[in-house]
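Hey team,

Filing this mostly as a record. A colleague (T.K.) asked me to run one chain through the structure pipeline before their review meeting, and I want the input and output archived in the tracker in case anyone asks later how it was produced. No errors, nothing strange. Just documentation.

Input sequence:
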Amino acid sequence: MNKKVRIIILCIAAVLILFAFTVGKTFTGNVISGRVHFPKENLGKALVMENGQKFTVFRTLTVSGKNPVAKGLAVFIVRFKFSGLSPQVNKRLSMIPAPFLMGMKGFREKNWMINALFHPLF
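Output structure:
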């Protein structure tokens, strides 16, 4: 087994252990109740950030709530690049944190995007 594969397997194992201890109950409740959705209406849409960079949505995850949306919503924008991984591999690996997100109390939506400048055909 090469080094990259071992690292990926270790990361997946760590994620599963952390998941079991932190968000398992909420995740299970959200999945069983049918509140988890992967809507397709935003796929391919371009979003322009404040600095002018353009990103294309390739996946959206939503968790519908039992209650109306709470006041004081927050937007959290994170940018990073997987060095040495193709956009296709990145797309597959980006599902790893999805169970954590589905299990966070109050979580509503996440969009996965890729920089259209560097990967226009993605």
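Quick notes for T.K.: The chain has four helices and four strands. The first helix runs from residue 3 to 22.
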